[in-house]
Specification:
Shape: globular
Strand order of the largest sheet: 2-8-7-6-5-3-4
Helix content: 40-55%
CATH architecture of the largest domain: 3-Layer(aba) Sandwich
Bound molecules: pyridoxal-5'-phosphate
Distance between the termini: 26 Å
Order of helices and strands: HEHHEHEHEHEHEHEEHHHEHEEEH
Oligomer: single chain
Radius of gyration: 21 Å
Strand content: 5-15%
CATH superfamily of the largest domain: Type I PLP-dependent aspartate aminotransferase-like (Major domain)
Number of helices: 13
């Protein structure tokens, strides 16, 4: 898709191709980030760019544990935080630490496609849970997937690709089923909450922290989206107070962080997020893009579950999703077919683009849905 986008842009000019295929944050990082960057660049403190303990700088971990303690019902210590190379690094470090060969990890359709590869990286087997009309996981499907081999489930809210946020009730229902399965199979199941979009939420849904609902809940997160610094590769793992065999897990996470090839999270990134811990991009700009784009597409006849977070729309495809994305391509519009997310019959639009791209693409969206009905 990326290559195809480049080819089209070369042929027709960048302004004339409407690329909604990438999940790259478009907003500027907040002022505090640039101030901190300037300050660090002028600092000559000895060793500032050297290695640090594998879990990361204590001062950074301390700021993150304090922030989560203030927002959750748990009291976290700096030792409950491990700095990672983005949320992607966090998920890989967790999976490497907990998985034995052929153990199963349940993921919810539609899913972030990389999960399959992350699970495969560490010898695990992905199982796929079906979804309801509103894109929440089907609890019947989830129930049917548990076995003695289940090691973890991954949840992602606000969600990529659908943009929906799980309600507290839904999260509690999921946790209830996990507890039931743990009793049935006499096992421990981790719930990994992948939440790089936690603070990109436009409906004021207060999402609970997973370890407040399930003792073996682990957070994988990052600053990629809320500070718009995806390229700086800075994220973290957060462990709850009641995590079973916590010391052993912390040792394993540290070891994985050191040996998977990252060695530790970037030093500069850690300092930057530490100094910008209370900041966030101007999410009202994403909200305005969502509201405008959603209302226009609905008026042309697209069926869409209204997203509450992230920067994605996941409309129903009026015809087969691969064929429809080809129709959109004729209008020089690039989107991603739902098939790649385990949800054929839908397609993903990333609205993290300039307003002019949205505006100029609208005719094409209107034409494509009309043409699909001919
Ligand atoms: C659902 C989800 N998880 C994880 C990631 C990876 O985030 P990071 O850039 O922090 O590694 C992304 C990135 O787009 C994502 O959409």
């Amino acid at each position: 898709m990326f290559e195809e986008g480049l080819n089209l842009k070369e042929k027709y000019g960048h302004k004339n191709v409407y690329d909604f295929s990438l999940g790259n944050p478009i907003l500027d990082p907040p002022e505090e980030f640039f101030n901190s960057l300037k300050e660090i660049s002028e600092s000559k403190i000895k060793g500032i760019h050297g290695y640090m303990p594998n879990a990361g700088f204590k001062s950074t971990r301390s700021k993150i544990s304090k922030k989560i303690s203030e927002q959750s019902k748990s009291k976290l210590n700096p030792s409950d935080i491990l700095m990672t190379s983005g949320a992607a690094g966090a998920i890989n470090v967790i999976l490497h630490s907990i998985l034995n060969k052929n153990e199963e990890v349940i993921i919810f359709k539609p899913f972030f496609p990389e999960y399959k590869f992350y699970i495969d990286n560490h010898g695990g087997k992905p199982l796929f849970c079906d979804f309801n009309e509103d894109f929440t996981p089907s609890l019947d499907s989830l129930k049917s997937l548990f076995s003695s081999k289940t090691k973890a489930i991954i949840i992602n809210s606000p969600n990529n690709p659908t943009g929906i946020t799980y309600s507290e009730k839904k999260l509690k229902d999921i946790c209830g089923l996990v507890s039931e399965a743990e009793s049935k199979f006499n096992s421990d199941i981790f719930i990994i909450s992948d939440e790089p979009y936690r603070y990109l939420e436009y409906e004021n849904n207060k999402q609970p922290f997973i370890f407040d609902l399930h003792k073996n809940g682990i957070i994988a997160s990052s600053f990629s989206k809320d500070l718009s610094i995806a390229g700086e590769r800075i994220g973290f793992i957060a462990l709850g107070e009641k995590l079973k065999e916590k010391e052993l897990i912390i040792d394993a996470l540290n070891f994985s962080n050191r040996t998977l090839g990252f060695v530790n999270a970037p030093a500069l990134g850690q300092r930057l997020v530490e100094n910008s811990i209370s900041s966030i991009v101007n999410i009202n700009k994403y909200k305005a893009k969502r509201d405008y784009f959603y209302s226009k597409l609905i008026s042309y006849g697209y069926e869409i579950v209204r997203p509450s977070g992230g920067f994605y729309l996941f409309p129903k495809s009026p015809i087969n999703d691969i064929e429809f994305t080809d129709l959109l391509k004729k209008e020089k519009i690039l989107v991603v077919p739902g098939t790649g997310f385990g949800a054929p019959g839908y397609f993903r639009i990333s609205y993290s683009v300039d307003d002019s791209i949205i505006e100029n693409s609208l005719n094409g969206f209107e034409k494509a849905i009309k043409n699909s009905k001919i």
